[in-house]
C-alpha cells in the first residue's frame, strides 16, 4: 500500500527498527494540509497550505503493526492525494492524530524533524515552518 509519512517515520532507519521495510520512497506534497506539532506531529486540513513528506510502499501488515504501537495508536488513517516531485498524483494512506488529541509541545521532536527535513532537501519555507515549533 502507498503510505504518506510526514513526521519522523519519514526516516527509513526508524521504520526498519519498527519492523517496517518500505520501498520506492519519493518526496511528495499534500496540498491543503498543514503540519502541527504538539507532543506528536499531525497534519490538519488548511486551505492553500502544503505539507511535505515521503511517499512509500509498505506492506499492509507492517503498517498495521506500526500503528498498533501505544505511542501512535490514536492516529487514524485517511486517504489523501499526494503530488510527487515528478508531478504524479497518487492516492495514499496518511495517518493523522485527531485535532482534539493534538496538545502540548515537543521541541526535541520538532528539532529532530527539522534535521530530517533538511536531509531530505525539503523547501526552505517548509524548513522554516518546522523551526517555528521550537524557536
Characterization of this structure:
This protein starts with a strand and ends with a helix. It has 135 residues and is α+β, with helices and mostly antiparallel strands. The protein contains 4 helices and 5 strands, in the order βαββαββαα. The protein has one domain: Hypothetical upf0131 protein ytfp. The model has no long low-confidence stretch (mean pLDDT 95). It has a 5-stranded antiparallel beta sheet with strand order 1-3-2-4-5. Strand 2 and strand 3 (41-57) form a beta hairpin. It has helices spanning 12-17, 60-66, 107-119, 124-131; strands at 2-5, 23-37, 41-57, 76-84, 89-96.
Q: What strand line-up does the widest sheet have? A: 1-3-2-4-5
Order of helices and strands: EHEEHEEHH
**Corresponding CATH superfamily:** Gamma-glutamyl cyclotransferase-like
Strand fraction equals 35-45%
Class from secondary-structure proportions? alpha+beta
CATH topology: Hypothetical upf0131 protein ytfp
Count every beta strand, where a strand is a DSSP E run of 2 or more residues. 5
Radius of gyration: 14 Å
Largest sheet: 5 strands, antiparallel
Shape: globular
CATH class: Alpha Beta
Distance from first to last alpha carbon: 36 Å
- Structurally, how many domains make up the residues? 1
Number of H/I helices: 4
CATH architecture: Roll
Mean pLDDT metric: 95
Q: Give the proportion of residues in helices.
A: 25-40%
Low-confidence stretches: none
Amino acid at each position: 500500500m502507498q503510505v504518506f509519512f510526514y513526521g519522523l517515520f519519514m526516516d527509513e532507519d526508524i521504520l526498519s527498527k519498527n519492523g517496517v521495510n518500505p520501498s520506492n520512497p519519493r518526496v511528495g506534497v499534500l496540498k491543503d494540509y498543514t503540519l502541527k506539532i504538539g507532543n506528536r506531529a499531525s497534519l490538519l486540513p488548511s486551505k492553500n497550505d502544503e505539507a511535505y513528506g515521503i511517499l512509500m510502499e509498505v506492506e499492509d501488515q507492517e503498517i498495521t503493526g506500526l500503528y498498533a504501537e501505544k505511542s501512535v495508536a490514536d492516529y487514524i488513517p485517511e486517504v489523501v492525494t499526494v503530488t510527487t516531485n515528478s508531478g504524479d498524483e497518487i492516492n495514499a494512506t496518511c495517518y493523522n492524530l485527531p485535532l482534539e488529541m493534538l496538545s502540548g509541545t515537543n521541541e526535541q521532536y520538532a528539532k529532530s524533524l527539522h534535521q530530517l527535513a533538511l536531509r531530505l532537501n525539503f523547501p526552505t519555507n517548509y524548513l522554516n515552518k518546522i523551526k517555528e515549533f521550537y524557536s
